[in-house]
Amino acid sequence: MFHIYCPYCEEYREEEEFHPRGQAHLQRPADPENCSDEQWGDYLFFRDNPRGIHHELWVHSVGCRKFFNITRHTANYEILETYKMGERPSITAETLAADERQSGVQTASGGWQTVGARPEDEALNTEARA
Amino acid sequence: MSEIREFDCRPNDQTGAESPLAWSLQRGPVPDADTQAGVTLRESAFMGHLILRGGAIVLDEAVREVLGINLPARPNTLTLDSTGERSIQWLSPDEWLIVVPGGEEFALEKALRHALGQAHFSLVNVSGGQTVITLSGPKARETLKKSTPYDVHPSAFPVGKGVTTIFAKTSVTLRQPKADCWELIVRRSFADYLYRWLLDAAAEFGVSVER
User: Fold this and answer.
1) Contact between chains at A64 and B93 (C-beta distance less than 8 A)
2) Which residue of A116, A120, B4, B172 has the fewest CB atoms within a 10 Å radius of its CB?
3) Domains of chain B, CATH where assigned
């Protein structure tokens, strides 16, 4: 069982109270009428499946019933941070890789696997991909 | 004045009403009254429950004007008036539960609508949908520990706190308005299930039901 920090309730709660709702920070094409089928299909159906840092949308369904974001490590299930809707994550694949490099630990290039999906913020992942 | 049409859900006439626990208390298991019981259960039936949603600053002003108590701004807190009969509980950053003695809810709803005017808010009378089960006695906390994963130790759950959490595989709003007195706000359709659960959980401590 996890204890997950709800940024709205401002305390740790049992995992049972929460539900995951998939990848966070999806960006709807600005002009759906004029975007390509590929762009629209990517937005609707394709999601990242990274080994490493993943930003996810969760809902505190038994509790305050608010949606919020979790930055989670998909290999060891560690929850690195939770943050409110509309906020930017302070921990991303690139910041984590940089920290680990500093501490002398060699890491595989973690981060996003970008088959099909387009991350919301290109800058967020440029370094992770490189 | 808002354009919402209001109506009294429970007009003061001879229409009969049954509390969510009426059936359980008439037909279900009811232990004999016991002054030595570790846990005492009681249903505070027919209270007025209102869900108030909107921005905290606007609502706080109106609530203080109408009810004379502050809107709890901190998460998971509860404010009571001087008599302890009326309370407002934080449910989420833009949602509060007001519980008042039965019969006052319609007048309160009208007064709040009037005070809030054209502000952006929502006020819904949910009195029929839920009820309050009060748990008291020296072993009340032990009973809760068997039922919910939430930490009810005094250091984590002081008087004046209220949370919505998992309770016996369903969800309740659990709160402690005064020392060693716990209120469970339960959904109507879960009332019988939770009542039976509580009887079973508290059986080892000795349980009595006040009616």
Assistant:
1) yes
2) B4
3) 34-210 (3.30.1360.120)
pLDDT attached to residue A122: 58
Residue at B65: amino acid letter: E
Query: So what's the pLDDT on residue A117?
Result: 45
Contacts of A17 in chain B (CB under 8 A): 165-166
CB-based contact B165 A64, cutoff 8 Å: no
Cα distance between residue B119 and residue B115, in whole Å: 9
Q: For chain B, which ranges sit under pLDDT 70?
A: 1-2, 13-14
Question: Using H for helix, E for strand and C for coil, what is the string for B121-141?
Answer: EEEEECHHHEEEEEEECCCHH
- Could you say which of A14, A17, A65 has the minimum Cβ distance to residue B92? A65
Cα(A13)–Cα(A3) distance, integer angstroms: 5
Q: How confident is the model at residue A121 (pLDDT cuts 50, 70, 90)?
A: low
For each of the domains in chain A, give its residue range(s) and CATH number, in order of start.
Answer: 3-129 (3.30.2270.10)
Distance, in Å, from the CA atom of B182 to the CA atom of B163, rounded to the nearest integer, reads 12
Cα-based angle A32, A38, A44 (whole degrees, multiple of 5): 65
Residue A113 pLDDT level (bands cut at 50, 70, 90) = very low
| ipTM score of complex | 0.89
Q: Do A63 and B75 touch (CB under 8 A)?
A: no
Report yes or no: A16 and A26 within 8 Å, Cβ to Cβ: no
Q: How far apart are CA B95 and CA A65, in angstroms?
A: 10
Could you tell me the two tokens for B199? Answer: 């009887």
Nearest CA in chain B to A64: B92
Strand ranges of the sheet holding B121-125, from the earlier edge strand across to the other edge: B78-80, B87-92, B95-100, B48-54, B121-125
pLDDT on residue A126 = 64
d(CA B130, CA B115): 26
Q: Does B76 touch chain A (CB under 8 A)?
A: yes
| Segment holding A70, helix H or strand E | strand A67-73
The H or E element containing residue A3 is strand A3-6
